[in-house]
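Next comes the chain:
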Amino acid sequence: MKIAGILLAAGASTRMGENKLLLELEGETLLRRAARRALEAGLDPVLVVLGHEAEQARAELLGLGCRVVLNPDHARGMNTSLAAGVAAVPPEAAAAVVLLADMPRVEAGMIRAVCARFAESGAPVVASRFGEVTAPPTLYHRAVFPDLLGGEGEGRGREVVRRLGERAVFVAWPATALSDVDQPEDFERARTGPGVEDS
């Protein structure tokens, strides 16, 4: 069963003051790190949605075998990037895992665990839960793709998870493994904080 990956990497990083996805952590940029782990997890294809500074970002993906999806509407919010990624999923993929490029502690094993839970349960959505917080990686069955399309702003993916209620299933991770990079202090914590394997 083929499961695609949608890596959202189009934002302007306004709170960071520079393109956070081009910052280096453990010898590689956040963008390349996230794309590589999606590939290592077996997602096929890995669709990387780019927008802000797209050419610099594209250069970070050279040699990985990802497919770039350009989102010219990225300034209108993350929902536009989610929709662009979903629209690019090939018809042979049964589902897609949505990932955020600014979550550097998401490991390939976490993505594989979400896919395994989908194979076991057949649920329309398999989301990750870090303590009390629901966050990517999140897998969406093709049947719910239409619900992920359209709109501006952000939060469409979370809305779908909430709307499905008990039909959605979850994979639990330590709360300490939740790390997203929005501001300089977030990046510093990501550099020094534990991942799932260390928690």
Observations:
- Residues 194-199 have pLDDT under 50 and may be disordered.
- The longest helix spans residues 108-121.
